[in-house]
Amino acid sequence: MMLVDSQVHIWGADSPRRPWPRGGAAAAHRIRPVGIRETLSVLDAAGVSRAVLVPPSWEGDRNDIALAAARRHPHRFAVMCRVGLRDRWSVQRIARWRQRPESLGLRLTLHRDPWRTALLSGALDRLWSAAENARLPVMVYPPGLCPEIGRVADRHPGLRIVIDHMAMPLGTAGTNAFTHLPDLLSLARLPNVAVKASALPCHSRLDFPFADVHEPLRRVFDAFGPDRLFWGSDWTRLPCTYRANIALFTSAVDFFSGPDLRRVMGEALLDWLDWPLF
Fold first, then answer.
1. Nearest partner of 49 among 69, 67, 79, 73, judged by Cα
2. Which of 39, 141, 182, 187 is the most exposed place for a label (fewest CB within 10 A)?
3. Contact at 8 Å (CB) between 5 and 52?
4. Are the CB atoms for 44 and 70 separated by under 8 Å?
5. HSE value, Cβ hemisphere, 13 Å, CA-based, for 113
C-alpha cells in the first residue's frame, strides 16, 4: 500500500534575510524550523512514500522552500502553493502554476482575515474562476465556512476543492470539534468537493486510538467515499507520534479495509491532484 500524506509543513527561520510578516495571527508549530532532512527521516521511518508540502501561513505567502524541496526530491514531494490577495489572478498566470511539475495546485487559509472577508465579500470570485479554467485544484481551510464553500463549488463545478482538516476549528477537541459536521457532510452532494482527514489526533481528548474521532471520521467516509477522503498528518503539530496518526486509519478503525484503505491512504489523493507516478 502506497502511503501519501496530504499535508506536511516545512519552513525556514525568521531572519533579516527572509523575514516573516509582522503582526501575523498564526504561530509556528515549533520554534525550530523543520526542513527536508528531518521530514524525510520521519516519512521514511513510517514507510510514507510521498507528501504534499503546504507552505505554512506564518511565513506569509511564500513558496520558495517548499518548491525547492519538491524540485530536489520530485519522487517524494509536490506543493500546494500559496497565493497573495494582491496577486494578479489571470487565467494565464494561474495556469502557469500547474505547468511546474513540482506544483499541484493552490492552498488558501480562509479562517483568518483578510482571507475570510475576501471569501465572504466575493473578492475571491476571480481566483475561483481562474483556477477552474486552468483545471487547478485548490485546498482550503474553511472552519465555519462550509456553506460558503458549497456555494463556490456549485458555481464552479469544474473546480476541484479539498476541505482541509475536515474543517475542524483550531483549538477544539472532542465533540466541540465536530459541531459543524452537518455542514461538512452536506458538501458530499457536490462531486467536485473532497475532504482531508488530516490532524485528527489534534482534535481528540483521548490518547491512541483516539476513540472520540472515530464516529465523525466514519460519517465523513460514508458521505464522501474512498475516492474523496484523503489521510493526512500535519505532523509538526501532532500530539502523538507520526506512526500513531497513521495507525488511526490503518488499524484503529474498522471501516477502512482492502481497496478502500488503499484509496484513502494515497491512491485517491494522487488521482485528485493529478500527481503522476514516475
1. 73
2. 182
3. yes
4. no
5. 3
Residue type, 121: S
Sign of dihedral through CA atoms 26, 27, 29, 31?
positive
Q: Which three cell numbers stand for residue 240?
A: 502523538
Read off the amino acid at residue 7.
Answer: Q
Asked if 152 and 118 count as a contact pair (C-beta separation under 8 A), the reply is no
The C-alpha cell of 99 is what? 505547468
pTM value surpassing 0.90 = yes
How far is it, in rounded angstroms, from Cα 208 to Cα 3?
20
Rounded Cα gap, residues 195 and 181, in angstroms: 12
Cell triple for 102: 513540482
Three-state DSSP class for 41?
helix
**H-helix or E-strand containing 79?**
strand 77-81
In the DSSP assignment, the letter for residue 179 is T
pLDDT per position as a tens digit, 116-165? 999 999 989 989 998 999 899 999 999 999 999 999 999 999 999 999 99
CA 6/CA 154 separation, integer angstroms: 24
Question: pLDDT per residue over 188-204, tens digit each?
Answer: 999 999 999 999 999 99
Q: CA–CA separation, 33 vs 211, rounded Å?
A: 31
Task: Give per-residue burial for 192-227: e unless 16+ CB within 10 Å, then b.
Answer: bbbbbbbbbbbbbeeeebbebbbebbebbbebbebb
CA atoms within a 13 Å half-sphere pointing along the CA-CB vector of 191: 2
Three cell numbers, residue 9: 509543513
How far out from the chain centre does Cα 132 lie?
18
3-state helix, strand, coil in the chain (%, to 5): 45, 15, 40
* Cα–Cα distance measured from residue 117 to residue 186, given in angstroms and rounded to the nearest whole number: 23
